[in-house]
Amino acid sequence: MHTFNEYLERVNNAIKAIPYPEQPSHLYEPITYTMDLGGKRLRPVLVLMACEAVGGDINRALTPAIGLEMFHNFTLLHDDVMDKADIRRGKPTVHVKWDDNTAILSGDAMLTMATQLIAQAPADVMPQVMDLYNRTAMEIYEGQQYDVDFETRNDVTVDEYIEMIRLKTSVLLGCACKMGALIGGADEATAQLFYKVGENLGLAFQLQDDMLDVWGDEATFGKAIGGDIMNNKKTFLLINAMQRATGDHKVELSLWLSTPNASRAVKVPAVTAIYDALDLRSLSLDAINRYNDEALEALSKIAISDEARSEFANFITRLVKRDK
Amino acid sequence: MHTFNEYLERVNNAIKAIPYPEQPSHLYEPITYTMDLGGKRLRPVLVLMACEAVGGDINRALTPAIGLEMFHNFTLLHDDVMDKADIRRGKPTVHVKWDDNTAILSGDAMLTMATQLIAQAPADVMPQVMDLYNRTAMEIYEGQQYDVDFETRNDVTVDEYIEMIRLKTSVLLGCACKMGALIGGADEATAQLFYKVGENLGLAFQLQDDMLDVWGDEATFGKAIGGDIMNNKKTFLLINAMQRATGDHKVELSLWLSTPNASRAVKVPAVTAIYDALDLRSLSLDAINRYNDEALEALSKIAISDEARSEFANFITRLVKRDK
Fold first, then answer.
1. pLDDT digits (tens, 9 = 90+) for B92-122
2. CB contact (8 A) between residue A130 and residue B127
3. Buried residues in B19-37 as b, exposed as e (16+ CB within 10 A)
4. Is the dihedral of CA A95, A101, A104, A106 positive or negative?
5. How many beta-carbon contacts under 8 Å exist across A and B?
6. Cβ contacts (< 8 Å) between A151 and chain B: which residues?
7. Is the Cβ–Cβ distance between A46 and A38 less than 8 Å?
């Protein structure tokens, strides 16, 4: 087994080695810019880890792995246009540095390049890998659409929210794990257990993200705390708060949700105080631990070496307990 | 062999039978809306024709054929956002009927659905088909980017223009012909000749489009004449006119190009008169005939039945001589 940092190095080197045509520069420069922004590279690392965990050769998985990272970056690029987000990983987003049309067209090219890279999966598993990837992509668009739909709804349930983040975030981690297992030679049942590991890890990961936006340390987290609160974003926390608040808390929360130009310095601590009073921190941690346990349970059912299993388990725990 | 209308009917029935999930409706309705707008369905018909011409079973080619039509419609959907085009085939475009974000996300989903459909090519040729499709898609994005780049350049050459339309339009017709031949069981050399047929057909087709915008009959063409002239669009005609005009014609043309709010009723006939005086109609027809001949020459080299060859030749002639 390789260490996390070894996988990461392989992934980063492979990303640096992707060949891009020089012309038209206006099409390809935004793509290299986006791929060079960095990021945790979780998805390609998961592909390699799962591949090696089942005894496969990670060299067979490397190109599809970076294809999945390209796909992930494509979704971020188009999401940033749709969300009118100005900054990604501390740098101007493509539609700000260039323009909307450049972001749309370069994003389309990234999606096709991702497909090209993933289609280089070994021939014996290529059809299954391609099918998994395309189905996952469709689910991610569905998740993104539900996220948009939720903005104008006030009756979103916790179950609907969980299904939305499952589609928008978790299925890609499930896909990464399953893709690695398939390329590594696992049978469908084993590969599906890897999918469950990634999917539950993804749910825990997203709920942790919701928590960090409220209770994270700004310096460690690397971005401003309270963004979701300022945007009235329907997170696990806000949806639960809307359902659970009574009396003064209910009145106060409604007031904050309907005050469009509230001061950040006042609104963020006030809403956080309501979340604290409703003990949503414990509620979130319970949910995170539940998904964490489900990921570990799926992992326990997979017939792999103890070393591979504990490597995977450590990885999950580190991701779920992260503070950034 | 089937007739053109029989191929078209098969294609239209297959498009109607594409299964779409019901939810989220905001993601899938714009896709069915776009696919229901109609169009000539040239690309999927070419896939079926080429497949059958080499003795293949068109049932094997039908799903990839409609995948290619889905891909084509995805490019139109995103192009309409980028061009801020309000009308497509007489109906409001998706970004007008819904909004920009819906058009971006639904377009992304169409690109992935297209890939899913094309990945259903028979297993024995799937890797070649997938490779052809992805390379073609990249070329189309490159063509679109060059088209955008040309808007702000005044030194575009005729050769650069031809290369741009080759990428933006012709390679997809080449891809359609080659894909059909591959699925029909043709060897690589034969399939490549089919590519040449489609590619040259595409060049003739686009030059004919440029001509119809100037000399077409508005009632037959189905859209207003002179759109390219009003937009100073760098077509085969304008680029040649800029190079060939001298004296008064040169002065007059420059004036029209630098008069942003010119009256349509005056500008279109005036620029058309310059094109007529420079005999660009003959120049265009010569170029169209040259590409037409190259398509027919490639066709003549393919070892297929006389019936199949004449069916293809008739199709090419009808497309190139079309008045709408």
1. 999 999 999 999 999 999 999 999 999 999 9
2. no
3. eeeeebebbbbbbebbbeb
4. negative
5. 103
6. none
7. no
Spatial contact of A122 and A183, defined as CB atoms under 8 Å apart: yes
Specify the pLDDT at position B233. 94
Residue type, A207: L
Residue A317 predicted with pLDDT over 90: no
> What is the average pLDDT score of chain B?
95
At B128, which helix (H) or strand (E)? helix B126-151
Q: For residues A178 and A196, give the distance between their C-alpha atoms in angstroms, rounded to a whole number.
A: 9
CB A105 within 8 A of CB B141: yes
Q: Would the CB atoms of A141 and B115 count as touching at under 8 Å?
A: no
Which positions in chain B touch A131 (Cβ < 8 Å)? Answer: 116, 119
**Any A CB within 8 A of B96 CB:** no
- What pTM was estimated for this model as a whole? 0.96
Q: A87-88 and A91-92: which strand pairing?
A: antiparallel
HEC-encoded secondary structure of chain A: CCCHHHHHHHHHHHHHCCCCCCCCHHHHHHHHHHHCCCCCCHHHHHHHHHHHHCCCCHHHHHHHHHHHHHHHHHHHHHHHHHHCCCEECCEECHHHHCCHHHHHHHHHHHHHHHHHHHCCCCCCCHHHHHHHHHHHHHHHHHHHHHHHHHHCCCCCCHHHHHHHHHHHHHHHHHHHHHHHHHHCCCCHHHHHHHHHHHHHHHHHHHHHHHHHHHHCCHHHHCCCCCHHHHCCCCCHHHHHHHHHCCHHHHHHHHHHHCCCCCCHHHHHHHHHHHHHHCCHHHHHHHHHHHHHHHHHHHHHCCCCCHHHHHHHHHHHHHHHCCCC
